[in-house]
C-alpha cells in the first residue's frame, strides 16, 4: 500500500468510527423511545400491574445509569474496541431473547442485561470518537453524534407505535437484531485496537459495589417516591442507602490508588463546572419534555401520540443546531458557547412558563420548546469537547462515563422532582388526571390548580438552568489538549 493510500485511509478513519458509534447510539436510544409508546401493549400482553409495568422502563433506566460509570472505567482498563463490540453484541442478543420472554419476570431480568449492553455502547462512544478525531475536527464529530441521538429520540415513538400496533410488541425489540448484527460486524472490521490508551490498573471492586447500591437507592426512591409516597418503607430505604453509602464511597474513592471515580477531577475547576453544568442541562431539558407532554394530555385532552407530536419542537431544535454547534465549537471557547446554550434554554423555559394556561398559544409554546432544544444542542457539543480533549487519553472512558452518568441522573431527578411539584398541592382526584390524562372538561378552579403546578415545576427548571449558566461561566479558560 502506497503512502498516499495510507494517508487517505487515515483521513477517512475518524468518519468510519463515527459511522460505527452512530449506529450504536441510534439503536440504544431508539430502544428507550420505542418502549415508551409500546409499554401499554407490552403490559397488556403480560397482564402487568401498574407498578410492574413501571419497572419495565425503570429496570433499564436504573441499571443503565449505574453501569455507565462502571463500564467507563472498564473500558480504560481493557480497551474500548473490545468492550464496545461485547456491549453491542449483548444488546443485540438480548433484544432477540426478549421477544420470547415467557413472563414479566424473565422480561425484567433480560431488560437489566440489555441495560448493561446499552451502557457499554453509550460510555464508549465519545471516547472512541475522541481517540479517532484530531482535536480541531472533534467538535464536528461530536455534533453529528448529538444529531444522531436527536434523530433517535425523534423517530423512536413513531417506530415503537408502528411495530407494536401492526406487527406485535415483540418487534419493538426484534427490529434491533438485524441492525445490531450489522453494527457488530462493521465495528469488528472498522475499529482499530489501541492498547496504548488502556490502563492495567486494579479494578475498584469496593467502589463498584458502593456506587451500585448508593445510586440504585437514589434512583429507586426518586422514581417511586411520587407514586408510593415519600414515607413508604421502600422509598425510605432507598434514600437511606444513598445518604449512608455516598459518603463512604467518596471516602474510599479519594484514598483509592485506582478509583472508579477520579474525584481529583472535581479539584480542577474546569472539570467540576463542566460536569455540574451537564447535570443541570439534562435536569432542565428532560423535565420540559415530560411536563409539556403531560400538560397537553391533561388540559388539552390530547392523545399520547398527539402529545408526542406536540413536543417535537424540542427535538427539532436539537436537530437543527447540532451541526452548527459542532462547527462553532471548533472556533470559539467552550465556556462562551455552553453558557450561551444554557441561556437560550432558559429563555425557552421562561416562554413556556407564560404560555402554560387556559389561553395558551401552541405557536408560542412551540417557540419555547424549540429554544430549549436548540440551547441544549449548543451546550452539549462544546461542553463535551472541553472535557474530552483535555483529559488524559488513558482515562477518557472514566471521564465520559462520569459525564453520561450525571446526565442520566439529571433525567431521573428531574422526572421525580417535576412530578412532585406538579402534584404536591393537588387533591388525589386531580393527581390521577395528571398521570392518566383527562377525557372530560375540568372546572375552572381545577384548571387553575393544575396550571399553577405546571408553572411551579417549570420555574424550578428555569432556576436550574440559570444556575447552570453560572457554573458554565466560571469554569475558566480553555486549556490545550494533551497529546495523544
Walk me through what this model shows.
This protein is an all-alpha fold and about 475 residues long. It is built from 17 helices and no strands. The C terminus is likely disordered. Its main location: membrane.
Comma- or semicolon-separated keywords:
single chain; 484 residues; mainly alpha; Growth Hormone, Chain: A; cell membrane; transport; MFS transporter
What is the fold's blueprint, element by element?
Blueprint: H1 3-46, H2 50-78, H3 80-98, H4 104-132, H5 138-167, H6 171-174, H7 176-190, H8 205-228, H9 233-255, H10 269-298, H11 304-310, H12 312-329, H13 334-355, H14 362-388, H15 396-423, H16 428-436, H17 444-473
Helix pairs in contact: 1-2, 1-4, 1-5, 1-7, 2-3, 2-4, 2-8, 2-15, 3-4, 3-7, 4-15, 5-12, 5-14, 8-9, 8-15, 10-11, 10-14, 10-15, 10-16, 10-17, 12-14, 13-14, 13-17, 15-17
Helix content: over 70%
How much β-strand is present in the residues?
under 5%
* Mean residue pLDDT: 78
- What is the number of helical segments per DSSP (H or I, 4+ residues)? 17
Named CATH architecture of the largest domain: Up-down Bundle
- Taken in chain order, the helices and strands follow as HHHHHHHHHHHHHHHHH
Largest sheet: none
Number of domains: 3
Q: Gap between N and C termini, in Å?
A: 25 Å
CATH homologous group name of the largest domain: MFS general substrate transporter like domains
Q: Identify the overall geometry.
A: globular
Oligomeric state of shown chains: single chain
CATH fold assignment of the largest domain: Growth Hormone, Chain: A
Gyration radius, to the nearest Å? 22 Å
CATH class of the largest domain: Mainly Alpha
Number of strands: 0
Structural class: mainly alpha
Amino acid at each position: 500500500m502506497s503512502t498516499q493510500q495510507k494517508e487517505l485511509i487515515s483521513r477517512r478513519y475518524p468518519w468510519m468510527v463515527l459511522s460505527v458509534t452512530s449506529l450504536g447510539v441510534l439503536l440504544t436510544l431508539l430502544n428507550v423511545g420505542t418502549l415508551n409508546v409500546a409499554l401499554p401493549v407490552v403490559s397488556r400482553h403480560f397482564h402487568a400491574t401498574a407498578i410492574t409495568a413501571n419497572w419495565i422502563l425503570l429496570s433499564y433506566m436504573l441499571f443503565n445509569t449505574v453501569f455507565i460509570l462502571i463500564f467507563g472505567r472498564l473500558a480504560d482498563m481493557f480497551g474500548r474496541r473490545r468492550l464496545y463490540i461485547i456491549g453491542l453484541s449483548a444488546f443485540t442478543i438480548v433484544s432477540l431473547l426478549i421477544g420470547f420472554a415467557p413472563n414479566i419476570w424473565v422480561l425484567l431480568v433480560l431488560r437489566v442485561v440489555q441495560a448493561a449492553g446499552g451502557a457499554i455502547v453509550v460510555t464508549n462512544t465519545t471516547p472512541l470518537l475522541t481517540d479517532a478525531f484530531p482535536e480541531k475536527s472533534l467538535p464536528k464529530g461530536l455534533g453529528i453524534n448529538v444529531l444522531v441521538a436527536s434523530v433517535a429520540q425523534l423517530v423512536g415513538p413513531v417506530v415503537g407505535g408502528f411495530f407494536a400496533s401492526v406487527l406485535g410488541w415483540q418487534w419493538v425489540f426484534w427490529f434491533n437484531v438485524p441492525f445490531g448484527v450489522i453494527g457488530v460486524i462493521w465495528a469488528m472490521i472498522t475499529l482499530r485496537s489501541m492498547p496504548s490508551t488502556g490502563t492495567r490498573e486494579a479494578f475498584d471492586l469496593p467502589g463498584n459495589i458502593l456506587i451500585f447500591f448508593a445510586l440504585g437507592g437514589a434512583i429507586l426512591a426518586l422514581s417511586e417516591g411520587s407514586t408510593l409516597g415519600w414515607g413508604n418503607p421502600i422509598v425510605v430505604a432507598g434514600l437511606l442507602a444513598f445518604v449512608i453509602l455516598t459518603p463512604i464511597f467518596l471516602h474510599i474513592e479519594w484514598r483509592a490508588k485506582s478509583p472508579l471515580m477520579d474525584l481529583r477531577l472535581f479539584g480542577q475547576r474546569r472539570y467540576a463546572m463542566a460536569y455540574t453544568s451537564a447535570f443541570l442541562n439534562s435536569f432542565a431539558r428532560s423535565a420540559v419534555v415530560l411536563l409539556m407532554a403531560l400538560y397537553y394530555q391533561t388540559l388539552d385532552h390530547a392523545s399520547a401520540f398527539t402529545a408526542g407530536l406536540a413536543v417535537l419542537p424540542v427535538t427539532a431544535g436539537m436537530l437543527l443546531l447540532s451541526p452548527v454547534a459542532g462547527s462553532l465549537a471548533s472556533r470559539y471557547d467552550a465556556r462562551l458557547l455552553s453558557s450561551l446554550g444554557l441561556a437560550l434554554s432558559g429563555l425557552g423555559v421562561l416562554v413556556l412558563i407564560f404560555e402554560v394556561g387556559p389561553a395558551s398559544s401552541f405557536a408560542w409554546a412551540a417557540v419555547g420548546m424549540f429554544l430549549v432544544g436548540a440551547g441544549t444542542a449548543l451546550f452539549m457539543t462544546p461542553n463535551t469537547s472541553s472535557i474530552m480533549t483535555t483529559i488524559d487519553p488513558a482515562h477518557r472512558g472514566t471521564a465520559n462515563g462520569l459525564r453520561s452518568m450525571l446526565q442520566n441522573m439529571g433525567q431521573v431527578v428531574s422526572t421525580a422532582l417535576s412530578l412532585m411539584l406538579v402534584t404536591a398541592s393537588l387533591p388525589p382526584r386531580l393527581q390521577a388526571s395528571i398521570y392518566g390524562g383527562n377525557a372530560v372538561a375540568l372546572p375552572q378552579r381545577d384548571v387553575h390548580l393544575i396550571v399553577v403546578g405546571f408553572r411551579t415545576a417549570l420555574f424550578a427548571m428555569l432556576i436550574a438552568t440559570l444556575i447552570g449558566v453560572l457554573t458554565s461561566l466560571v469554569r475558566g479558560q480553555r486549556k490545550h489538549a494533551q497529546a495523544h
